[in-house]
Amino acid sequence: MAENLLEIKNLKIGATVYPPGEKPHDITIAQEISLTLKKGQVMGLIGESGAGKSTIGLSAMSYGRGGVQLTGGEVIVNGRDILQIGAQGLRELRGREVTYVSQSAAASFNPAMRLMEQVIETTLLHGLSTKKQAEERAVELFAALGLPDPENIGNRYPHQVSGGQLQRAMTAMALCPKPDLIVFDEPTTALDVTTQIDVLAAIKKAIRDTGVAALYITHDLAVVAQVSDEILVLRHGRMVEHGTTEHIINSPKEEYTQQLVSAHSIQHEEKKPTEKPILSVENISASYGGAIKVLSNVSVDIYPGQTLAVVGESGSGKSTLARVITGLLPPSEGRITFEGEELSPALPERSIEDLRQLQMIYQMADVAMNPRQTVGTIIGRPLELYFGMRGAEKRKRVIELLDEIEMGEKFIDRYPAELSGGQKQRVCIARSLAAKPKLIICDEVTSALDPLVADGILKLLLDLQKVEDVAYLFITHDLATVKSISDSIAVMYQGELVRYGQKSEVLAPPFDDYTDLLLSSVPEMKLGWLEEVIAHRKMESAGN
Amino acid sequence: MNFKRIPISALVGILATSGFLFIALFAPVIAPYGMAEIVGDVWEPMSDKFWLGTDNIGRDLLTRMMYGARTTIFIAGVATILSFGLGSVLGFTAAVKGGWVDMVMSRAVDLLMSIPTLIFALVVLSVLPGNLLTLIVVMGILDSTRVYRLSRAVAVDINVMDYVEAARLRGEGLRWIIFKEILPNALSPLVAELGLRFIFMILFLSSLSFLGLGIQPPEADWGSMVKANKDGINFGIPAALIPGFAIAILAISVNLVADWILNRTSDLKGGRG
Q1: What is the pTM of this model?
Q2: What's the pLDDT score for residue B18?
Q3: Considering CB atoms only, which of A328, A355, A364 is closest to B170?
Q4: Could you tell me if B174 lies within 8 Å of chain A, comparing CB atoms?
Q5: Do B170 and A435 touch (CB under 8 A)?
Q6: Residues of A in contact with B5 (CB under 8 A)
Q7: Which of B6, B168, B269, B272 would best serve as a mutation to test chain A binding (most A beta carbons within 10 A)?
Q8: By mean pLDDT, which of A12-16, A301-305, A413-417, B77-81 is the weakest?
Q9: A327: which chain B residues are within 8 Å (Cβ-Cβ)?
Q10: Do A338 and A197 share a domain, yes or no?
Q11: A436 touches chain B (CB under 8 A)
Q12: In chain B, which end has fewer C-beta atoms inside a 10 angstrom radius, N or C?
C-alpha cells in the first residue's frame, strides 16, 4: 500500500474555559491520540457527545473550533507537520488537500448564492482549474452522487432542494477540488433514515470512485460500519479501541465498544389489546391555517398500560397528531375520546382533570424545562397544581419520584443547566409521572440522546409502565426504538395512516412499499448491509 | 451571599448609590441649612460656610442638592417602578394572549409612542392639576410604552419555548405563566433596561422641571436647580454644573449595580456554578 496520507502522533487538544465566577483555566479535551490513514482509506471516528470526535477530525485540517487549541503532538499530512506550517501553508492545505463536509448542510450553505457557485468556489479560489472545467467536474459529481437533473441543479438556490440533496451537494463541494482527504462530520445525522441511506450510498460510491481518503465522524456505529475500512472508538477524549471495521463489529475487545455494538438490546413482549381503549382517535383531519392539510382521516386506539408507536419520517404528520391529541391544534374533522368520554377539541375548554390524565414528554429536554426553576420546583409543580400538595408532603413525593427515575434526593435543588442530557430527560419523565396520568405522549424522547443514554431512558420508561400502568403514545422516526418498546404500531406517511395494528402484524410481511422502505432503511450493525438494501428497494423516500 | 465575589465595579456602584439614598433619606437631618432658607449673597463662591456656594437667590447649594436628591430620586424611582410594573405585565400579557388582545394593546402603545413624549407630557401636565401624583403617573405611563415594547418582544420569544407549552398543557393560568415561566427568563434584559430607564426618568423629570412643569419652586430638584442657576454660567459660576454632575454620578453608579445584577441573573446555575 502507498505511504501514509495522514499521520496523527500523540495529539493533545486543549481549551481555556471561562466558568462564571471562577478563574479561567485550561482543560484537556483530547489526549494521546494517534492514528494513520493511507491513501483511499476510510476511517470512522465514533463516540458519544463530548468524546472529542469532531475536534479530532478537524485537527486533520489543523483547525480548532471556538477557542480550541491543538497543544501538542504532530499532525502530518502528505509528509509535513501541518501544525507548524503557518497561516499561508494552511490556506494552501485547506480546500486543496483536505476538505470538510459538515453536519448541517442547510446551515452551512449561503442561502443567497446558487449551488454551483458555492460548489466550485474552493476550486477556483485555489486556481486548480478554469471555471468551465470546474463546472463540468461539478456536473459529473452531481451525476455520480445521484442528484436529479445534474445539468441544471446547480442553478438552484439551497432552499430549492431537499435536505438530502443539499448534503450531497456539499459532498460534491468537498470532492470538487480533488482533495486527498475529506473530513465528514456527521453528514447524515440530521437526515431521516430513509434519506440517510441514499446519501450514505452516494458518499460511499463517491469515495470509492475517486479514491479519496476520508475521516468519517459519527455517533452511529451501524452507519460507520457501512462506509469505513477501520474504526476508532473514542471516549472522553481518549482512544478506546482501534481496529478494522470487521473486528470492531464482530469481535470488539473493550467493554465500552461491546456496549455500543449491543445497544438497542431491549426486549419487550407484545401485550394484546384489552376490551376498552383508553384513548380513541377517530377520523381526525387537521391543517395549519386551513390551507395545508397535514393529517387526513387518522384513526388509532391506545389501550391502558400499553404503548402505541407512531412512526414516519419528517413531515409525515406524527407530531401534528400529538398536538391534536393534546388540544394544542384543534382538528378540522373527527373526534377524540378518552376513557369513553369525548375530549374537547381545544385546550382551553378541557377540564384540569383531563389535562392531568394526559401528559407529554418532549424531544428536547433542554427547552422543555424552565431553566430558572430547580428540579424540585419542576417536579413539584404538578403535585401542587393537581393534588394541592405543599411543603414537606410535596418534598417527600418529589424525592420518591426522583428515586423512581434512578436519580435520588441530591438532585432536588439543582438547576437544569447542572444536569446531563439523559438526566434532564429523566426529570421530564418524573414531571409527567407526578401527575399520575393514564397516558403519556412521548415525542421523539430519545432522538436527541446518545445511544447508550437513550437505551437507559427506554428501559426506564418500560419499567415505569409496569409499575404505574401508564399508556404511552410513542412518536419516533427510529424503528429500532419501536421494535423494542411498542405493543402496537401506526406507520404514517404524508399525513395518512399507511399501516396500523399489533406490533407482530405490522412487522410481519407482506409489507406495503412504504413500510418496507422504512424497515429496510434502519442501519443494521453488519457489514455489507447497505448494498443489500439498495439492491432490493421498491420506492424512494419522499425527502429525495 | 459572599461579599468577596462582588466585583470592584459593583462595589463602587453599590457604595455610591447607597450614599445617594442615604443623603436623600436623611436630608432634613444632615442638611446644614433649611431647604428654602436664604442664608447668604447671590452666587457666593465655595467656602467653609457654604461648601458648594450659594444659588441664584442666596440659598445654600449643598442643602438644596440634598433636598433635591430626595425629590429627584423619589419621583424618578416611583415612576420607574410604575412604568416597569405596568409595561412588563401588559407586554407579557400581550405576548401570551396574542390575537386581538395583543393587537389592541400594541396599537394603543404605537399611538402613544407616535406623539413625542416631552410634548405629550407638557400638554397633559398643563391640563391636569399640578401635583406630585399626576407627575409620577404621567411619567410612568409615558415611559411604560418603551418597557411594553421590550417585554413583549422578549416574551414572544420565550412564549414559544417547550416549557411554556408544557405549562399550558398542565393547565396553568395566565398568572403562573407570566410570573413563574416568563418573568424569570426575561429578567436579564429587563434589569439592563431598568438601570437605563431610571436615569432617563431623572433626565425627563429634570427637563420637565427645567421647562417649569415638573417640581414647583421653592421645592428643590436637580433639574430645576440647573434652570435656576443657568445664567450663572455666563459669569463663570459653577452652580448649574453641580446638579448636572450629581445626575451623571448617579447614572453611572446605578448602572454599575444594574450590570452586576444582570451578570447574576443571566447565570443559569442559581449563582453557584
Answers
A1: 0.80
A2: 93
A3: A355
A4: no
A5: yes
A6: 21
A7: B269
A8: A12-16
A9: 169
A10: no
A11: no
A12: N
Pairing mode, if any, of strands A496-502 and A238-244? unpaired
User: How many other CB atoms are there within 10 angstroms of residue B208's CB atom?
Assistant: 23
If asked whether residues A366 and A467 sit together in one domain, one would say yes
Whether A182 and A98 have beta carbons less than 8 Å apart is answered as yes
Q: Where is pLDDT greater, at B47 or B168?
A: B168
**CA-closest candidate to residue A307, choices A470, A501, A460, A504:** A470
A479-492 residue pLDDT tens: 878 888 889 999 98
- pLDDT tens for each residue of B83-103: 999 999 999 999 999 889 999
A516, part of any domain: no
Q: Which amino acid is at B69?
A: A
Same domain, A223 and A311: no
What does the alpha-carbon distance between residue B202 and residue B212 come to, in Å, rounded to a whole number? 15
Boundaries of domain holding A123:
4-261
Of A228, A261, A294, which residue constitutes the final position of a domain?
A: A261
Longest dimension (CA), chain B: 72
Q: How far apart are CA B192 and CA B205, in angstroms?
A: 21
Number of separate domains in chain A: 2
Q: A92 with A163, same domain?
A: yes
Q: What is the pLDDT of residue B270?
A: 55
The answer on A381 and A296 residing in a single domain is: yes
- Per CATH, the number for B8-265 is 1.10.3720.10
Residue found by looking up cell 494513520 in the block: A36
The chain B residue lying nearest A385, using CA atoms, is: B172
Q: Which of A129, A156, A128, A152 is nearest to A139 (CA)?
A: A152
Q: Is residue A517 part of a domain?
A: no
Handedness of CA A237, A239, A243, A248 (dihedral sign): negative
What is the tens place of the pLDDT at every residue in B200-225?
A: 898 888 888 878 887 877 788 888 88
Q: Does B163 touch chain A (CB under 8 A)?
A: yes
Indicate yes or no: CB of A418 within 8 angstroms of CB of B5.
no
Interface contact flag, B163 A352, Cβ < 8 Å: no
Per-residue DSSP letters for B44-107?
PPP-SSSTT-B-TTSBBHHHHHHHHHHHHHHHHHHHHHHHHHHHHHHHHHHHHH-HHHHHHHHH
pLDDT digits (tens, 9 = 90+) for A223-281: 888 888 888 988 888 888 888 888 888 888 888 888 877 766 666 777 777 778 889 98
Which of A100-109, A320-329, B234-243 is most confident? A320-329
On whether any CB of chain A is under 8 Å from the CB of B162, the answer is yes
Interface check for A19 against chain B (CB to CB < 8 A): the answer is yes
ipTM above 0.90, yes or no: no
- Ramachandran angles phi, psi of A96, nearest 5°: -115, -55
Which chain B residues are within 8 Å of A19, Cβ to Cβ?
273
Q: Answer whether B26 touches A (CB < 8 Å).
A: no
Give the C-alpha separation, B258 to A221, whole Å: 50
Residue among A325, A352, A354, A370 with most chain B CBs within 10 A, to mutate: A370
Are A56 and A241 contacting, i.e. CB atoms less than 8 angstroms apart?
no
Q: Say yes or no for a CB contact (<8 Å) between A371 and B185.
A: yes
Closest chain B C-alpha to A368 CA, distance in angstroms = 4
Q: Does B165 touch chain A (CB under 8 A)?
A: yes
In whole angstroms, what is the distance from residue A206 CA to residue A137 CA?
13
Computed over every residue of chain A, the mean pLDDT equals 85
CB of B270 less than 8 A from some CB of A:
yes
Query: How many CB atoms within 10 Å of residue A305?
Result: 18
